[in-house]
Amino acid sequence: MRTDGRHEREGLNVLSTGGVTVVVHDLTGEDRTDREPVLLAHATGFHGYVWQPLADHLQGFRAYAPDLRGHGDATPPDNGDFAWDGFADDVLAVVARLGITGAPAVGHSKGGAALLLAEQRRPGTFRSLYLYEPVLIPPTVLETSRVDNPLAEGALRRRPVFPSRDAAYANFASKPPLSALDAAALRAYVDHGFEDQPDGTVRLKCAPESESEVYRMGSRHGAFEQLHAVSCPVTVARGAVLEFGPANFAESIVDALPDGRLEVFDHLGHFGPLERPAEVATAIERFLTET
User: Does the CA dihedral 91-221-44-268 come out positive or negative?
Assistant: First the structure.
């Protein structure tokens, strides 16, 4: 299904903490109420609609994808605090508003960490979790890591304004890292990730300053230390292991979970669900059906 940011479907507004309004998108449609609901939580800098190509391949599930605080059409917190507990607040608010406690969920990167934080706070929120490279850094790594965060610094240099959505798409499609994305996922990112300006240009909805702050807070949430409290089945998937990135910690996360398992996509990168949405959807559906 092709998206078009100039003719967006309306989402469901959900109030969260910090004065935040989260916006939830039903990616499957009202005509499939017979399907089991599944919640899809996006990575930093993205939004709910990037899951659309993957959701199209989840044959047995009705996919809900929220724009979490400061991303997409969701509002940022009033005080500018992007501590990751706030993303867990957003997830729990969405689950309560939709009435889907006990449903499965899928998370990518920061979205995966948000789901784990939510489950740790309220056990039983989810019946199973499929997490692609969730951002959880073992304490032993944090003790020896550098203080600065290259992702936080890089986000501040991100270009926020383009002449048009097509110009933004052409820019991202021509160079890494977003050139690795499936064309439909990249189109969804651009069409719904920019807002129209009075002068005819388009501007990123997720401000570079907000994205940078999200990255800066990514090592401070403490979810790794509480993995023992997550009793539901969890698959942690990873792409190729690189010198820097969450794939390095996938095995450690699985080992710390009471019911964890590992799935490896060595031919994919950190954006795996957006690179090969059909392939990753097949793996997700297999796991959710088995559990």
Answer: negative
The whole domain housing 48 covers: 5-157+208-290
Q: How far is CA 148 from the centre of its chain?
A: 23
> Is 168 inside any structural domain?
no
Contact assessment for residue 168 and residue 202, using Cβ atoms and an 8 Å cutoff? yes
Contacts of 114 (CB under 8 A, 6+ apart): 41, 68, 84, 87, 88, 90, 91, 107
CA angle 250, 58, 90 (to 5 degrees): 60
Query: Got the DSSP string for 83-117?
Result: -THHHHHHHHHHHHHHT-TTEEEEEETHHHHHHHH
DSSP codes, 51-64: GHHHHTT-TTEEEE
HSE of 248, CA atoms in CB hemisphere, 13 A? 8
In this structure, is residue 162 part of a structural domain?
no
C-alpha 218/C-alpha 83 separation (Å) is 8
pLDDT band per the 50, 70, 90 thresholds, residue 102:
very high
Nearest CA among 205, 209, 203, 208 for reference residue 80? 209
- Condensed to tens digits (0 to 9), the pLDDT of residues 123-143 reads 999 999 999 999 999 988 876
How deeply is 97 buried, as exposed, middle or buried, from its count of CB atoms within 10 A (0-12, 13-18, 19+)?
middle
Length of the chain: 291
d(CA 81, CA 96): 23
**Total tally of structural domains belonging to the chain:** 1
Cβ(87)–Cβ(57) below 8 Å: no
Q: Is position 84 within any domain?
A: yes
Indicate whether 4 pLDDT > 50.
no
Output the DSSP codes for 169-222.
HHHHHTSTTGGGS-HHHHHHHHHHHEEE-TTS-EEESS-HHHHHHHHHTTTSS-
Q: How many helices (H) and strands (E) does the chain have?
A: 11, 11
